[in-house]
């Protein structure tokens, strides 16, 4: 006999073969004190919220989408074969020809 419980597997996208739906989440940075996720949040905090709630806060201008800072490894001196170049006050090999003057007379 076909019942509502046994018939769910006959409908595409229903029944035991499908996984339960997961709600997507979004990271946002709070720009105005507010309540998010049923908790008070303050300016500067980064919180992970359900996408719908995050979008509501963005529309109300209480949050912005948080972009993860990209990791950029710093070059190590060992890999480049030696010393790290630094800026000098005078370029190498250039002599100054300016004469040093004495104190001004008042």
Tell me roughly what share of residues is in helical segments: 10-25%
Q: In terms of per-residue confidence, which ranges show pLDDT below 50 for 5 or more consecutive residues?
A: none
Structure summary, number of beta strands = 5
Largest sheet: 3 strands, antiparallel
Structural class of the secondary structure composition?
alpha+beta
Shape: elongated
- Give the SSE string: HEEEEHEH
The strand line-up of the biggest sheet is: 4-1-5
Radius of gyration: 32 Å
Q: What is the overall pLDDT average?
A: 76
Strand content: 15-25%
* Individual helix count: 3
- Span of the ends, CA to CA: 115 Å
Structural notes for this entry:
The mean pLDDT is 76. The protein starts with a helix and ends in a 26-residue tail after the last helix. It is of the alpha+beta class. The protein has a domain at 23-42 and 53-69. The strands form two sheets. The chain has a three-stranded antiparallel beta sheet. The chain has three helices and five strands; from the N terminus they run H-E-E-E-E-H-E-H.
Topology:
Blueprint: H1 4-7, E1 25-30, E2 34-36, E3 39-41, E4 46-50, H2 51-59, E5 63-65, H3 77-80
Antiparallel strand pairs: 1-4, 1-5, 2-3
Task: Name its key features.
3-stranded antiparallel beta sheet; two-stranded antiparallel ribbon; 19% strand; elongated; 106 residues; 5 strands; single chain; 16% helix; alpha+beta
Summary, kept brief:
With 106 residues, this protein is of the alpha+beta class.
């Amino acid at each position: 006999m076909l019942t509502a419980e046994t018939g769910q597997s006959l409908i595409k996208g229903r029944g035991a073969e499908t996984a339960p739906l997961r709600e997507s989440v979004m990271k946002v940075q709070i720009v105005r004190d507010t309540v998010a996720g049923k908790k008070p949040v303050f300016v500067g905090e980064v919180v992970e919220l359900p996408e719908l709630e995050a979008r509501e806060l963005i529309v109300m201008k209480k949050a912005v989408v948080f972009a993860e800072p990209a990791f950029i490894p710093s070059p190590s001196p060992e890999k480049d074969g030696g010393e790290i170049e630094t800026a000098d006050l005078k370029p190498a090999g250039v002599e100054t020809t300016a004469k040093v003057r004495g104190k001004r007379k008042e």
